[in-house]
Write the structure tokens for this entry.
Amino acid sequence: MNEHKYPLEVFWDEGSEAFVCIAPDLPGCSAIGDTPQDAVKEMETAMRLWIGAALGLGRTLPEPRRKAA
């Protein structure tokens, strides 16, 4: 999980009535779930796809702004 050590944020979103997980260092990378745990699990896939797409375009991955625990 989160092999690149990017910090994650999880919060409740009233509009979608779901938990949202974001990686602030990866613009546009987010996932939702019925529980915080589900959102984080879905984020694993979202991050893998985001990172794969960035690398496929020859982009350098951003450094995490702060270390994940």
User: Anything to note?
Assistant: Residues 36-56 form the longest helix (21 residues). The chain has a mean pLDDT of 91. Residues 9-56 form one domain.
